[in-house]
Write a structure and sequence with these properties.
- Chain A is built from ten helices and nine strands.
- Chain A is α+β, with helices and mostly antiparallel strands and 314 residues long.
- The longest helix of chain B is centred in the first third of the chain and has 57 residues.
- Chain B is 75% helix and 0% strand.
- The chains are: A alpha+beta (314), B mainly alpha (185).
- At the A-B interface, helix 8 of A face helix 1 and helix 5 of B.
């Protein structure tokens, strides 16, 4: 059965949703809140203790320490602070795995995937895409998988960086992509690669610029493909129209679309922290779950806006 | 003075050469686009007999339509590619095939036949590819015309070869006419 995302969104923002959550998950919320408090306290205590400890050592013995020792101490300080965040990450993960699966059912049968176990397959998939420019590092945050309107959808929050050493031998990094990658099987069959992007840069080899008829579309997007006919088979006038409409009513950030690996891949460029569980908000605050659901709805609305869930041939 | 003249002449030669290259490239792209349409049309020609064979099993009263489609297929196949006649024949063939697809609705047995459904799906896919190939051709032809009609490209118009036969693909007037929805309700 197809889902109407606007109806789901209205439901999520209604007052009944709050009482529904309180009624259904009050026990889970209370236990999560306990865990959140403990995690926060642990992180604060460790961070504060370590900071005071390291500052004292620096003040007392700083002038006798060599630069290598100072760097070593700084690295161990960063390590301990990161260590103090482990319970916080655990709490965030637990919160996404206890309450969210039941709430995500409002939209489809979505669930958060363990990024640690799935990392290599996600990295391989991202590396196989022509959507992004040159990068050499991938950070994966949240990954969701599920079915929306009978389409299997994967959503990954990723950050791609290009790390390099400049002429002064300093390590630098530039962010190539920060946002969400949405992938699902295409109704249309194709053999080559086609990318619709909003930057006028060439991102993959053997690609040729595709000049299309819609001047409004051409102003916003640039199409590159290995096959001029296949590109037009995929990027139809109706599709161009929908892309322009989406760009005008943009609620997520600019998007880049690629047709490759038998899939449609949509990269949503946005520095926003998607699907986040804020540690400073109590776990009993329903707005946390509303926020995550709203993020998912925003992403899935792209499929609706581009009519990618319908086999209409346009 | 001689150096200045040589430099100007050299720059002029480069400009003219790049115009020549662009005209030849655009002409070749237009020809490539035209052959792209032919490839897709070939698929349609191959598919039509299959569709007709399946349809004939169930549609006993549509012999006139079948004959018309066969005749138009032969006519379209024999026309020179890129010509107005070819586009017109193709357009008529397309109209007749569409009416065949509509008539399928009147034969419930045929409508639910899996081979017919598969054939119709494939036919629709081929149609979408033909439309994409036509769009590529129209775009390539616009680029070619722009390059040979605007100075200094017009100096090299003859290098593009015989372009008189190239014409834009346009839909037939019947498909532009307003649709009377009451006929279908």
């Amino acid at each position: 059965m197809s889902k109407d995302l606007n109806k789901v969104q209205n439901k999520v923002f209604s007052s009944e949703f709050k009482s529904f959550c309180k009624k259904q998950f009050s026990k889970d919320m209370k236990s999560l809140e306990e865990e959140r408090k403990k995690a926060l306290l642990f992180a604060l205590a460790i961070s504060l203790g370590i900071t005071i400890g390291f500052l004292s050592v620096f003040f007392l013995f700083g002038e006798y320490a060599s630069s290598d020792m100072k760097n070593g101490m700084l690295a161990s300080y960063v390590f301990f602070v990161a260590f103090s965040w482990i319970p916080i990450n655990k709490y965030k993960k637990k919160s996404k795995n206890t309450i969210m699966p039941k709430l995500l059912a409002f939209v489809g049968d979505f669930q958060f995937v363990d990024t640690y176990n799935k990392r290599s397959s996600i990295v391989n998939y991202v590396n196989s895409l022509s959507l992004f420019g040159k990068y050499n590092s991938i950070d994966i945050d949240d990954v969701l998988e599920g079915t929306y309107n009978n389409i299997n959808v994967s959503i990954a929050e990723i950050c791609l960086k290009d790390k390099y050493t400049n002429s002064d031998n300093e390590k630098r990094e530039s962010i190539v992509f920060d946002g969400v990658l949405l992938s699902f099987k295409s109704f249309k069959k194709f053999k080559t690669r086609t990318v619709v992007k909003s930057e006028h840069i060439k991102i993959f080899k053997n690609a040729k610029q595709v000049n299309l008829e819609d001047p409004d579309f051409e102003k916003i997007y640039d199409v590159e493909s290995e096959d001029q006919i296949e590109a037009r088979y995929l990027v139809t006038p109706a599709f161009m129209n929908r892309m322009v409409e989406y760009s005008r009513s943009n609620k997520t950030g600019k998007i880049t679309v690629s047709f490759e690996n038998e899939n449609v891949n949509i990269a949503v460029h946005s520095t926003k922290n998607w699907f986040d569980v804020p540690i400073l908000k109590p776990a009993t605050d329903v707005s946390i779950y509303k926020g995550i659901l709203f993020d998912l709805i925003l992403i899935l609305k792209i499929i609706d806006a581009l009519k990618m869930d319908q086999n209409i041939g346009m | 003075m001689i150096i200045a003249i040589s430099v100007v002449a050299f720059i002029l030669a480069i400009i003219l050469y790049s115009c020549y290259v662009s005209v030849v490239k655009n002409a070749n792209t237009a020809r490539e686009a035209l052959s792209g349409i032919d490839v897709q049309l070939r698929k349609r020609y191959d598919l039509i007999p299959n569709v007709l064979t399946i349809a004939k099993k169930f549609m006993e009263h549509e012999n006139d339509l079948f004959e018309k489609i066969v005749m138009l297929r032969t006519q379209a196949h024999n026309c020179k590619s890129g010509t107005k006649e070819k586009f017109e024949a193709e357009s008529q063939l397309d109209t007749q095939m569409k009416s065949l697809m509509v008539n399928v609705e009147n034969y419930p047995q045929l409508k639910s036949d899996e081979t017919m459904l598969q054939a119709m799906r494939t036919y629709n896919e081929v149609e979408e590819n033909i439309s994409a190939a036509r769009r590529f051709y129209n775009s390539a032809l616009t680029q070619l015309r722009n390059s040979i009609q605007i100075f200094p490209g017009s100096l090299f118009a003859s290098c593009a070869g015989d372009t008189s036969d190239f014409s834009y693909f346009e839909t037939d007037p019947a498909s532009k006419a307003p649709i009377d929805a009451s006929k279908y309700l």
